[in-house]
Amino acid sequence: MEPSQLVYAHLVDVAELIRTRQVSPCEVTRAILDRIEAVDPKLHAFALVTPELAMEQAGQAEAEIMSGRYRGPLHGVPIGLKDLCYTKGIRTSGGMAIHAEYVPEEDGTVTARLATAGAVTMGKLQMTEGAYSEHHPSVTAPRNPWGSAHWAGASSSGSGVATAAGLCYGAIGSDTGGSIRFPSLMNNLTGLKPTWGRVSRHGAFILSESLDHLGPMTRCAADAAAMLQAIAGEDDNDPTTLLAPVPDYLGKVQAAGVFGARGLRIGIDRRFNTTGVEDKVTELTDAAAEVLRSIGAILVDIDFPDSTAVLESWVEFCGYETALVHAETYPARRDEYGPALTGLIEIGRGVSPQRIAEIAVERDKFKGRLARVFRQVDLVLVPGLFLAGPSLERLALSDPKELTTLLKYTAPFDMSGSPTITLPCGFSDHGIPVAFQLVGPHLSEDVLLCAGHAFQQATDWHTKHPPV
């Protein structure tokens, strides 16, 4: 396989080439390092590249595989870590100037689990400051490889750009209000936001304790299944992790194949999905629903529960929890913070305890109403974003009202802790990717992945690559 083909291959396909010894982990890793060297100076996806560590891990994987010890589908495969995942002895900043020189003394749980699976770490991927909406002024923001004038997504911007541009086969992202889903949809990726508590957050910089999710960003649903398999599960170091067994996600996806959506009842609230939404987004989302119908899904009209209260209170609630996270450094080191994160913390510092109690009540009500929807249907289909391929000029993420509008189809599912999968479904008139989401009840990641895989067997949107 030519290097140009190899760097854009799906993770599971590269894994099979490695397992059958058609390529070696060292060959694959060297190809990705060469690609990073050639392309990333234009894209700025990496906060830090770790070539020595990558080649060391690749060499170890190669030796193990040659001796008959194969760990599974991540063994010897290059991946990237969002720069909030702690890496022992390697700088981890979380996109923050206040932590620019922080070097953890241990790996975070996700980092350690990927290492146990045999993955090769290419480096730390750039992100917005503190995992909020904008990059710190000292950081060069990653550029969307589909068009540099367009948003790359936030906050897992580097994870989206690197995976799309062939700089790794998958990456870890985090999602508090949409930060796995936005960079996935803007970069033509498949993003899996797990159920809150499905993946440990131990050893990761936090934005909001009760909203943060860690999950995979990949080129297809099968790749996401392989990565989730490695990182999911309970962790005594994070007592918020769920005490539930981890299914064989990849096995289920491969067994279901093209039939993974057959018989699934997929709920659609057409009013909720179209109000304030660009016609192009509606056109492509409707077309995706018809594809699902054509492969055996049953489309069901539903009334999506009113999410206004949880959406409009997301900034206040996130800000309150962010202020707690940063209490030791803000306002003591306020001058080292960028304007967007400063603004969020200030909002949080101004929220009263009574208001937080009111938000918590509304949040619980929304979670309960949404859970009742899943008595009628297996999954719910919603857009990923109301805009098709927004430009950087169009967005004003430091404005809380603008941000709330942007979060309509993402933040409510962080407030509820629901799992979602983001799936490419076409392109804007400017050639920028567009995606939709499937949302499931808690711990339905296997169903989401099977449905996503089936959709991708019937479409080829996810196979398109940016003109880099």
Q: How many β-strand runs?
A: 11
Number of helices: 18
Q: Report on the biggest sheet.
A: 11 strands, mixed
Overall shape: it is: globular
Order of helices and strands: HHHEHEHEHEHEEHHEHHEHHHHEHHEEH
**Could you give the distance between the termini?**
19 Å
Global Rg: 20 Å
Key terms:
468 residues, alpha/beta, Amidase signature (AS) enzymes
Please explain how this structure is put together:
By secondary structure, this protein is an alpha/beta fold. Helices cover 40% and strands 13% of the residues. The chain has helices spanning 3-6, 11-19, 25-43, 51-66, 109-116, 157-164, 181-187, 221-231, 249-256, 270-274, 279-294, 308-312, 314-325, 339-349, 353-373, 400-406, 411-415, 445-458, and strands spanning 46-49, 78-82, 120-125, 170-175, 190-193, 213-218, 265-268, 298-301, 379-383, 420-427, 433-439. Strands 1-3-2-4-6-5-10-11-9-7-8 form an eleven-stranded mixed beta sheet, with helices on both faces. The chain starts with a helix and ends in a 10-residue tail after the last helix.
Outline the fold blueprint:
Layout: H1 3-6, H2 11-19, H3 25-43, E1 46-49, H4 51-66, E2 78-82, H5 109-116, E3 120-125, H6 157-164, E4 170-175, H7 181-187, E5 190-193, E6 213-218, H8 221-231, H9 249-256, E7 265-268, H10 270-274, H11 279-294, E8 298-301, H12 308-312, H13 314-325, H14 339-349, H15 353-373, E9 379-383, H16 400-406, H17 411-415, E10 420-427, E11 433-439, H18 445-458
